[in-house]
Amino acid sequence: MTAVPADAIIRIDAVTICGTDLHILRGDVPEVAPGRILGHEAVGTVVATGPAVAAWRPGDRVLVSCISACGCCRYCRSGVFGQCLGGGGWILGHLIDGTQAEYVRVPFADTSLYPVPENVPDRAALMLADILPTAYEVGVRNGAVRPGDTVVIVGAGPIGLASVTTARLFTPNHIVAVDPAALRRDAAKMMGADVTADTAEEAGTAVAELTGGLGADVAIEAVGVSATFELCARLVRPGGRVANVGVHGGPATLRLERLWSRNVTITTGLVDTSSTPDLMRMVAAGRMDTSAFVTHDFPLSEMEAAYRTFTDAATTGALKIAAFRDALAA
Q1: Which helix (H) or strand (E) holds 236?
Q2: How far apart are CA 246 and CA 249, in angstroms?
């Protein structure tokens, strides 16, 4: 097996499923062609490189990022890899075949793969391919979380929980997690949320009590439906920030008649993964435990069962699954 000049062929050692994969299966991402191999997160081993690849050699253990970066275009040169104009961005499992296979071709290998330290297990490294940098960059960093803030996170799935984890890096006064599923609220508390809420009404009451009626400094939308976006807009204070992270498959109402005079900043974004090296160093140093996100293990040969478990998270309690090339390698 050979790679084209700037690409590498990676043997998949561990892979996971993203909520975006479920959006694709529901038809929310129509540009995905029928028959496409899904997946944009993996840890693997380099088996072949093209002649233009300088950073990697066969045998290197690498993180396959959800974002590919040409490294040369205007956006890549400013670290905004998600908007790559040179053929990168979110392409794995989207515009080209992805990681939920035995092998994957990774374009622009020098700028799209990351080394995995020896002391970071596959299970922990997997979470740095997408959910941790996405939550950090698009949620916490875009939302400008600051020390002393009250942060409300609507949705306690993997992205919401990763937002809880990374928001704690900035020592907010309060983190409120909102989710109807008791198992996910419990997980949010375990990962650092000090208040949880079941319903929109309960969330509104909790935020009002914590802020003297002012509202949250930052509201992070981590679901991707109209109701949760609108809830974030209601919970944020005047002068606050709403950071939308969720993947929306349909329109969401923007109530400008309520927001226009409130100095509210609304941000959106696709992850760039520019923070991945920093997050990897924190995991390697023991400053962040990402392996706790993985609740279910499978061998790679049982991806259909893994999808069923992940899709029925309300029953199975799944947060993230990990599928391994060798089930004993977990």
Answers
A1: strand 236-244
A2: 9
